[in-house]
Amino acid sequence: LAAGRFHRGRLFFRVMPPTTTIAPSLRDRLDRSRALVDTRYDEELSLRILAEEAYLSSFHFLRLFRRTYGVTPNRYLQQVRLDRAKDLLIFSDRTITDICMSVGFSSLGSFSRLFRRRLGLSPIRYREQFRADNFSSLPFCYVAMMSGRNPSDERPDDESVSSDDPTSGAK
Predict the structure, then answer these.
(1) Which residues fall within 8 angstroms of residue 113, CB to CB, at 6 or more apart?
(2) Facing residues of 98 across strands?
(3) What is the pLDDT of residue 156?
(4) Segment 111-167, tens digit of pLDDT
(5) How distant, in Å, are the alpha carbons of 16, 54, 96, 98 from that of 105?
(6) Per-residue DSSP letter, 166
(7) 3-state SS assignment for residue 170
(8) What is the separation of C-alpha 156 from the centre of its chain, rounded to a whole number of angstroms?
(9) Cα separation of the two ends of the chain
(10) What is the torsion angle, in degrees rounded to the nearest 10, for the CA atoms of residue 115, residue 120, residue 121 and residue 122?
(11) How wide is the angle at C-alpha 155 spanned by C-alphas 94 and 160, nearest 5°?
(12) Taking the model in full, what pTM does it have?
């Protein structure tokens, strides 16, 4: 925002600090759009879709979102996707390509480039560096949940003797 003022025949602009207070009903609508990103990050979410969720025009939504949360909607969406990808890289055995596509990126190249730019490591290096450190200190149920496995579906590998086994009977 800028406020114009004349001084000695010239128009000067002074940058005004963003207002930090917005109407509660408007904040609720912005929160609803943010929640949409949090839950549907793996889908194609455009500025138009997010703005419609808040019942605002695209440009007004963009300005209010940035003023309220400190980031643009696109940057927030990218961060949510990267956070989910980081969890999957550490806690699952899925391929980098599968993780990339499952969190909503359409290109492995753009995912890897953004990942490296934001975190300073490639997805493969990130997995190598953090996987060994984090598995030992976390409960198995959490690791299984993050990797998409169900611990109750896993069977022990011991060989138990069944009653159908002819060698198990008494002579």
Answers:
(1) none
(2) none
(3) 46
(4) 999 999 999 999 999 999 988 665 555 566 765 666 565 555 544 444 444 445 555
(5) 37, 24, 11, 10
(6) G
(7) coil
(8) 34
(9) 94
(10) 40
(11) 145
(12) 0.67
